[in-house]
Amino acid sequence: MGAIKFLVVGVLVAGVAFKVAEKMLVIPPIPAIDPNPWWGPGQPQPEDTTIKPFKIKIPENDVEDLKTRLGLPLRLTPPLIGANFTYGMSQNTLEQIVTYWKTKYNWTEREKRLNQYPHFKTRIEGLDIHFLRASAKVTEKKGTKVVPLLLIHGWPGSFVEFYSILPLLTKPQDGSDVVFEVICPSIPGYGFSQSSAKQGLGLMETSQIFLKLMKRLGYDKFYLQGGDWGAIISNFMATMYPDNILGVHLNMVAVNTPGPNIKLILGAVLPAGIVVAEKDQDKLYPLGDKFSMIARETGYLHLQATKPDTVGAALNQSPVGLASYILEKFSTWTHQNNPHLPDGGLLQKDFPIPLDELLDNICVYWFTGSITSSMRYYAENFGRMSATFLMDRIPCEVPAGIAVFPQELLNQPKNFIAHKFHDIVTYTDQPAGGHFAAMERPQLLAADIHKFVSAVEKRR
Known about the structure:
By secondary structure, the chain is an alpha/beta fold. The chain has helices at residues 2-24, 60-70, 91-103, 107-114, 166-170, 203-216, 229-240, 258-269, 281-284, 287-297, 299-306, 308-315, 319-334, 355-368, 371-382, 385-393, 414-417, 437-440, 442-459; strands at 51-54, 119-124, 127-134, 145-152, 178-185, 222-226, 245-250, 400-404, 424-429. Strands 1-2-3-5-4-6-7-8-9 form a nine-stranded mixed β-sheet, sandwiched between helices. The radius of gyration is 23 Å and the shape is globular. The N and C termini lie far apart (51 Å).
């Protein structure tokens, strides 16, 4: 009898709480931004809207400089006994990776791989924006439709994230009625995209730049996909420009509004099934463990959101330091158990991302000198949390697809995400994978994108 009373009271409390949350949730208007800002140095100039071919060709002097720096004696501190990666990058593992980098990794060959797709630059709002284009392969399969897809990376990734998934998106796949014309831009200040000379270029401003890019390429309507920053930019674009977005597919999403937050708290004390389904319990609970993990893994975020130029100066001076900082994220964010392994999983045979691909990504940051400007993106966005929070409170009516990878740092159930995305077409719990899904599990992510877009196209 006591259990029944507990359940009844719990349901009543949950109902009241949700009603209170609904009243608190006054939907704000989309914040206005300058439609034609100038982010480049100096005064605004007439904009050159031409699209120019670009080839990745790092000067030989820069390649030799990297080799010289890697050849310097390492000043590493022996790791604590049994600490593995729980204190961050193990110095023993770092030494092995640096040895491989300077003796076996071949940038010249890797550069050829990166140039297998055509690259371009175009000037938007005073900045040279870089993108690659992976064209859909001509197919004789009847009923297959070519659709445009804007594929957006995150941090500490880059356009390099997508090289394993692009062949799966541009060619017909079993069970799919679509094939993609893929545009992969670099976020301003990342890789080969020019960084802003002025403060204020954040998520909303990037969304506007990427919309202008797609329109310049002739796409007034297109699909979006992203994880990390790419997921948030996609979220913003779908919210700001619903008339231009056919659908948005995300492999990282967390809605921060009163409804989900109250559900999170109630779900921690009420039996499974009332607020949070049994199958979704592991995504959120135990709360203490989840909060502890998030606190442990977000120290970088606070640093980059407050003093990016300080740490950026150190990382931009030392390729070893840069590798240590970035690779530690690839270790933990790929599998949450990796910090307890001696090599953080990075050197394991079953690590899902080849070491050469990890070094490709690091080399892009190194040769472009973009680590500081990439970290400034945190200061621009978290320094304006009000705009970010407001965007979460504005419903998105664009068709949405959600791919949930179990080792992602933060996942939410469908009924949480539905507070933001009102038309969830697909929500799929994936069997494996973490934060860097396109690199780790390209087959799973590609199949989910195909499934989502095929479903949306059948409705159109």
